[in-house]
Structures are given as structure tokens and as C-alpha cells.
Amino acid sequence: MVLTTTTAASDEHLHCTFASRYARTSLPRFKIPDGSMPKEAAYQIVNDELMLDGNPRLNLASFVTTWMEPECDKLIMESINKNYVDMDEYPVTTELQNRCVNMIAHLFHAPVGDEETAIGVGTVGSSEAIMLAGLAFKRKWQATRKAEGKPYVKPNIVTGANVQLEQNAFLYSRQFQLYLQEHCHLVGLLGKIRKYFEVELKEVKLREGYYVMDPAQAVEMVDENTICVAAILGSTLTGEFEDVKLLNELLTKKNKETGWDTPIHVDAASGGFIAPFLYPELEWDFRLPLVKSINVSGHKFGLVYAGVGWVVWRSKDDLPDELVFHINYLGSDQPTFTLNFSKGSCQIIAQYYQFIRLGFEG
Ligand SMILES: Cc1ncc(COP(=O)(O)O)c(C=O)c1O
């Protein structure tokens, strides 16, 4: 959400040419109008102004889905008024989100037993998912440090500098730099963790010809305050997959030598719904023991409209219980772990539609 900085005192007005039959006076731009107006007029005014937006079907910039089948659009419209957080009121929606979490966890080879349910949650996108995963690592690390009687105030995350696009754009042509600045400044998500959750970011610098995190350098930068190494499966810059398998090997060795237990998070925002289908033999997920959590964007290659992401944890032990919020909205206890409370349900429903509609084959 863009923070609005316009002054409330502005007396700018909108002129509604095609709604003038209904609205005879112009509308104040930044104040709620004094009177109401017919619904046809309100529609005409908003619709006409939105014509100046771009056409979503031509927008490929953020890899976010802009078309779904009419049957799914219908399901979305039928569920647009359901609040995701009213789990007792909408138990089937909750069940569909749980099915999605389990499907994704199995897709990523989480060691979930036949009688167990996977640990994960639907989010607004990968950004929220990454922040939740970061919080879980921070809490786990702090708990261990406290138990050992060691300081626990300077946590850090080691990651490739490709999460911070602006700083690396020098590596590219001027034209590509401009493209990146215009279209990709949304990344730097781990930067949000730094700002909001006070976790230092230790960046492995990119170099000419190598535009993802070098696992050897990353492991070298790990210290006793490192809460996790964050690898990216599908770099926003180039789409390239980082070598999570090598990272797992090198980090296992370092953990053995130092006695630390530094884990890995995989930001599979883009690659999470590509690698399992195109490169099933590639080991980047929970097949690697140090990978404790993975996020993926449902609204990118999960093929759902903007507003859905997922984070799954390897096991219950990887999500500290104190972070789980127990809501008791209409009766029974429902554990949740999200940054927000109320939100729409339709993207979750749409994600489930895509899973059963396309299947693994699709
Ligand atoms: C690697 C990576 N992580 C996270 C994100 C943020 O994803 P979302 O838009 O789902 O919040 C992006 C977005 O492009 C990305 O490329």
C-alpha cells in the first residue's frame, strides 16, 4: 500500500463528464462528498477513472497472474464476501487452505507422516510469508541463545545481495538498470525484516557474470548470530536458481565444526511452482535437512490473482509455539500465524481450484 502524502486541505475536484447526468457538481478529490449519489453515477465515475490504468493482461512485469478461467472467476465472485479469519463461520474455506498447505508441503517433500498434517499458512504474498519465516527463525535462535546464557540481541540473516536490487543494478546495462528500478524495487523484502524486526542483513556481494548468492561465500559469512541463510529459488533479477544443495552441504560441515545449528530458508516465490514440475530431480527443498521453511507466491506461478502466498515449515518444531495466535472467534480454538487479521478468502479458494483443476500434470 502506497502511503498517501497528499494534504487533506487540498481542494482539488474531479470532473465527471460521463456521469454528469447524475452528478451535477464536481466531486471533491480528497474529501468524502457531502451528499450521496445514484449507484449508476458512482459506477460510471469510478469506471471512467480506472480506464486510465494499464491493462492487466498486458502486464507481465511482476510475474503476477492476470487471467484465470471463467469458472474460477465465478468461484471468486461467489466467495468475495467471506472473511478468511472467521474460521468457524467458513470451515470449508479453512479446510481448503489446510489442504493447500498440505499439498504444497508434499510438493516440497516435507517429512509429513501419514497421520500428520503439514505446518504452514496462507499469506497475502511471499513478502508476508518471508517475514513470518524470519520471525520464526529469530525466536528459535533467541530461545536457544537464552537457554545457553549467551547474548541474543544482534541476530543476522545471510543472503545474496540480489535481494537488494537497487544496489546491484550497476552490474547491468543502463537500460536494464532503469527497468529494474521501475519494475523490481518491490523486492528488498529481507530489508523489511531488517527494518521491522531488527535483524541485520549480511549480504553476499554479486560479481560480474555471477548474479546469485555464492554458497561458499555465504557460509563463510555465517556467525553465531546468524538466524538463517536465505537462498532464492528464482532470482528476481534473472530467474536463476541458487545452489541450495551445495549450501546445505557446506553449512552442514560448518555446523559440525562450530557446534552451531544454522538453518536455511528458501525464498521460492517464483521457483516453488516451477522446479517441482520442470526439474523434479533438483534438490532444493525439504529433501535437504537444513531447509526449515520455504515460501512461495500463489499469485505468481501458482496461477492465482494477486493476494496469496504460502509459507510452510519442515515440522512443528520449526515454528515456535509462542508465535502462534489462538483465535476463538465463534467458538472453537483456531491457531493462526499471520501479520494481519481479517482478509478475503477468495484467493485461497482460487488456489485450491488451480491445484485440483490442473493437477501435477497440468
Ligand atoms: C525472490 C522474490 N521473493 C519475494 C518476492 C515478493 O513476492 P510477493 O509479491 O508474493 O510478495 C518476489 C517478487 O517478485 C521475488 O521475486
Please characterize this protein's 3D structure.
This protein has helices at 39-50, 70-78, 91-107, 126-147, 165-168, 174-183, 189-197, 215-221, 244-258, 275-278, 346-358, and strands spanning 13-14, 27-28, 119-123, 156-160, 200-204, 226-232, 264-267, 291-297, 309-313, 325-327, 334-336. With 362 residues, it is α/β, with parallel strands linked by helices. It folds into two domains: 1-53, no CATH class; 73-358, Aspartate Aminotransferase, domain 2. The strands form three sheets. Strands 3-9-8-7-6-4-5 form a seven-stranded mixed beta sheet, with helices on both faces. A two-stranded antiparallel sheet has the order 1-2. It has a two-stranded antiparallel sheet with strand order 10-11. Strand 10 (325-327) and strand 11 (334-336) form a beta hairpin. Helix 4 (126-147) crosses helix 7. The radius of gyration is 23 Å and the shape is globular. The model is unreliable at 165-187 (pLDDT under 50). Residues 62, 125-127, 186-187, 189, 232, 234, 236, 267, 269-270, 297, 309 line the site of pyridoxal-5'-phosphate (PLP).
